[in-house]
Design brief:
By secondary structure, the chain is mainly β. It folds into two domains: 110 residues, no CATH class; 111 residues, Immunoglobulins (Immunoglobulin-like), CATH 2.60.40.10. Helices cover 0% and strands 50% of the residues. It contains no helices and 17 strands. The radius of gyration is 21 Å and the shape is flat.
Length: 222
């Protein structure tokens, strides 16, 4: 079984949940892939063992945030004839906002072993855990050191794939040793904005789990 934990984060501390798209405004063909199960905590699980499941699957999710307790919101409403303040209440079971999450999930041929660290690469220290959060200042460089292994002789770690800020750089000091570096500029600072960084390593034709971290950028001089 492979588990994929999607990165969730809300700067206000709201509770974030995931669900499958359920109508034409949220999905194209609203039939979730039968090979995947989704938990409300935004974790996907894949466990089929038959080769008939090989192929690509469209995953169409909705990520929603919920208040942790009933809250009251006040907003200003106006048109060309009048203006007024209005209030609305949201309970912990009412979503405040939602965004679509859509991607393709590809099932490759079976590996000889599903034990992490043999054919499937596994992360080793000092690789940060999924969901780890870092805090840095503008013009301060962050280094994220990543180490991985796959012990089978023909499974050398070949590549680190990552997504993050446009000026993030990658370097390697040998098979399975990588470093991501990023120095945020003033143009990338927006009132303690948080940036996600996700990465996975590849060995031959298989990849490790996906890990994501969060970097919050502040300006101590302001």
């Amino acid at each position: 079984q492979r588990n994929i934990s999607l990165l969730t984060f809300d700067p206000d501390g709201d509770h974030v949940q995931c669900r499958h798209g359920s109508n034409s405004n949220e999905c194209y063909t609203c039939t979730p892939p039968s090979v995947l199960s989704l938990s409300s905590s935004c974790s996907l699980s894949f466990s089929p063992t038959s080769s008939s499941y090989e192929g690509s699957y469209a995953v169409q999710l909705m990520m929603e945030d919920f208040p942790r307790q009933t809250i009251t919101m006040t907003y200003y409403y106006y048109n060309s004839y009048s203006s007024t303040y209005k209030t609305t209440s949201k309970s912990s079971s009412s979503s405040m906002s939602r965004i679509p999450i859509q991607f393709v999930f590809k099932v490759d041929p079976a590996a000889p072993s599903c034990t992490a660290g043999e054919y499937l690469p596994r992360f080793l220290p000092p690789t940060p855990e999924h969901g780890a959060q870092f805090f840095i200042d503008v013009n301060e460089m962050i280094e994220i050191n990543i180490r991985a292994e796959a012990t089978q002789s023909d499974q050398r770690i070949t590549e680190l794939l990552f997504s993050g800020p446009f000026n993030m750089t990658k370097s390697s000091s040998g098979s399975g040793y990588f470093t991501l570096r990023w120095t945020p500029s003033f143009s990338q600072y927006d009132d303690d904005e948080t940036h996600p960084i996700c990465f996975t390593v590849q060995a031959k034709s298989v990849s490790s789990e996906l890990r994501c971290v969060l970097v919050t950028v502040s300006n101590s001089e302001s």
